[in-house]
Write a structure and sequence with these properties.
Pfam families: Aminotran_5. The protein is an alpha/beta fold. The protein is built from 13 helices and 14 strands.
């Protein structure tokens, strides 16, 4: 029996991929063209400069790869490090775990600080480990800024202060896949050496364009790997090939043309709203979601307010309730896509993503759908309570500062 058509739009509220603005979709509807033509740099050269603004950088170098954020993880590690190099990181969610796994599989010596899921990177522990590294064997500190599995944001500014307080020369690598373009990010101020982003979250594009903002320090580290027998293998993600082609507006291989046009339009959306307004909007929508969770009598996965993410809220299902059933019912019955629990929190949490192109009414639709699915699955919440709490907060807190 064929599936029946679902009227209306699918309500996408996972923490990525996110909703794509109509004007961005239209911008990507382009005919193929010669990416070696004399006209092509008029599209690409401004992108390298404009994209830096979203990273909070004027000094960094942007590389654009046909890849997801996972590919950009690999780009950061393989260009700057050698086999056996020590890196320091914390594990507090599925994505920090996966980055650790990649580093180990590449042949790096990974020092892992295990943290409780629902918390994040502890700056004091990082400082302590770096102070103990008298010979400066640790070459990089890796931090996932926003851990979507648990709805946790770590304080990158505090991590930078910890590195400086220890007087340690380690590079700082930051996964900003679910934060850059949505949460405040200041690559230059925080002296982030490799800042990693993907197109499918705050940049409001389909997946497939990986972006990295690289400091001068990281570029020099990459140059220092040249000719070493123990350098990490890299071909597709080699920065050197891009450095030769990008200044003239070209790429070492075929670029994802529609995504480049989409990026230009997405950046225009962000700049027209104003980045400070973008950050404020996400903060308001994040708090409105948490107000709804509190009204339901439920708890977030984040252990305390200091860890709250403004791009995704991971909500603990009541004891004995399978969160996966809440998610499936919301999708099948109400055409609402919620984020699933991953790894340690699989079946224990459902996630509401509030990242990218959305406003008050968009979010209230997701909260209403989640509330109905909770009720349908026997969770005793007061009907309308989450929507009422969120709408009250939103009425009192405009999304724009200006």
């Amino acid at each position: 029996m064929a599936a029946t058509r679902r009227p209306g739009r699918n309500h996408l509220f996972v923490p990525g991929p996110t909703n794509i603005p109509d004007r961005v979709m239209r911008a990507m509807m382009v005919q193929s063209e010669d990416h070696r033509s004399v006209d092509f740099p008029s599209l690409t050269k401004p992108l390298f400069e404009d994209t830096k603004k979203v990273f909070g950088s004027t000094e960094g170098t942007i590389f654009l790869f046909p890849a997801s954020g996972t590919g950009i993880w690999e780009s950061a590690l393989t260009n700057t490090l050698a086999r056996g190099d020590k890196v320091l990181t914390a594990r507090y969610g599925q994505f920090s775990h996966l980055w650790i796994d990649m580093a180990q599989r590449l042949g790096l010596d990974v020092i892992v600080q295990e943290e409780e899921w629902g918390t994040g990177a502890k700056a004091d522990k990082i400082e302590e480990a770096l102070r103990a590294d008298k010979d400066h064997q640790i070459k990089a500190v890796m931090v996932v800024h926003n851990e979507t599995a648990t709805g946790v944001t770590s304080n990158i500014g505090a991590v930078r202060k910890a590195i400086d307080a220890a007087g340690h020369p380690a590079m700082l690598f930051v996964d900003g896949v679910s934060s850059i373009g949505s949460l405040p990010f200041y690559a230059d101020e925080w002296k982030v050496d490799c800042a990693i982003a993907g197109s499918q979250k705050g940049l409001m594009l389909p997946a497939g364009l990986g972006v990295i903002c690289v400091s001068q320090k990281a570029l020099k580290a990459a140059e220092g790997q040249s000719g070493r027998n123990d350098r990490l293998a890299r071909v597709y993600f080699d920065w050197e090939d891009h450095k030769k082609q990008n200044p003239a507006g070209y790429f070492p291989y075929t670029p994802p043309l529609p995504l480049l046009y989409g990026l230009r339009e997405a950046l225009a959306c962000l700049f027209e709203e104003g980045l400070e307004n973008v950050y404020h909007r996400h903060a308001v929508l994040g708090e409105a979601t948490r107000q709804a969770v509190a009204a339901w009598g439920l708890k977030t996965c984040a252990k305390s307010p200091e860890w709250n993410s403004d791009t995704v809220t991971a909500i603990l299902a009541p004891e004995g309730v399978d969160a996966a059933k809440i998610i499936k019912h919301a999708y099948v019955r109400y055409n609402l896509a919620l984020g699933a629990g991953l790894s340690q929190v699989a079946g224990k949490v459902f996630r509401i993503g509030h990242v990218g192109d959305l406003n008050e009414l968009s979010l209230l639709g997701a909260i209403a759908g989640a509330e109905m699915s909770l009720l349908d699955n026997g969770v005793k919440v007061t009907p309308g309570s989450g929507v009422a709490a969120a709408s009250s907060y939103l009425r009192e807190n405009p999304l724009s500062k200006s």
